[in-house]
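check this one:
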Amino acid sequence: MIEREADANGIERPKGYNVSFHFNSKAEQHHFGQSHPMKPWRLTLTKQLVLSYGLQFAMDIFETLPATMDQLAAFHSRDYLEYLSRITPDQSEVIANNFKIFGLGPEGDCPVFDGMWDYCRLYSGASIDAARNLISNQADIAINWSGGLHHAMKKWASGFCYINDIVLAIQQLLTVVPRVLYVDIDIHHGDGVQHAFWSTDRVMTLSYHKFDPETFFPGTGGKDETGPKNLVNPGAHYSLNVPLHDGIDDAQYEDLFDHCTGACIEKFNPQAIVLQCGADSLGGDRLGKFNLNIKAHGHCVDFVKRRSHNRRLLVIGGGGYTPRNVARAWCHETSLCVGATLRNQLPAHIPYRQAFMSAENGGGELYPNLSHITTRRHENKHDKGYLESLKKNIDEQLKYVENAPSVQMQEIPNDYIKIREEEDERMRDEEEDRDRERLEAQRKKREKNFGGRAEFRAF
């Protein structure tokens, strides 16, 4: 069935470039809590759509390893990582005492849940692996939908984000390229990535987001946030923001994105681009307040891909709190990466197809009109004058940008691939050891909890 679907959609490997798809199924199994809007199950829906359309035949598929402590410490502080690795949900007093230090707990957006540390390592490992595929020239476009958690700070969890996999991936890219452009289309400001690269001219950050400091998280990302005010600092004018109001529509967003992103690519001339595709900017999102349809959201991926011109491209996930529409968007954007055109009617053999079938859920279509199937359409508060002012602001900031950053690059060692293979093997052995230790601990816990030998034998 999948082969027939792939044939019907004309799916084949793209000519002239390679695409890699990175995931770890274990990341899909985690749960933030019953009432929490972040649902890793959206990754399962996305993967099943991708596989059911047959898009895997056009890509190299990698099931990735969890990130190691040392890899995470390339950005995050050791004391924060140690806390993440040790804290458990039943340590309520410890959590409460450390909330103001590390940002985890019921007072904020980042709960402590079972398997939290494993989840962090899984999505971060996938982004690191995707970046490594790019720098080793195994792929021209690499995709990790489990990544994109852009709010996490060096030693602070924030906005559902514990580890900033984007920063870790960009650090990988910077080992072989002088300049990386980071573009963020999540409805929330990419504050963690902006903060991480605030004082460098090797990374330009460009974030499109809803901006309302009084009522909308994180309250940062005004158009005057352009980097350090001290013009001697290399990062001055390298943090660019496009603050939006409620209700922007497809045509407005596409026009704004094309102008601002195109100008940044032309002036900054990056050798790699990282595109964060947070799907909470879609219409009908549980938390978002835009009116974008899936193809308008995907237009951003298509535009960046077309303008890449032999630049490495990393495509990652992000926010998105209506899982069926997140899956639709990321499946569509996967098809754009490989140059495929998908049929609107969802394949009959898709697992969990019922999640898409009712009229209010899109009627079994990949591209439903989101404004017609939701009561969450928001009033459009943009006028032409405001949108033009945003374009002008980006153009003005780019006048200060130099084409060459203040860094000299060294060539990547010829034995990089060998080093990578050895590291992968070491990580795989470590993961097997951890699995054995985890199973042994679970076994001992079960034994301890049984009341007597008869219960143990029954088990």
In short: The chain has 15 helices and eight strands. Residues 416-449 form the longest helix (34 residues).
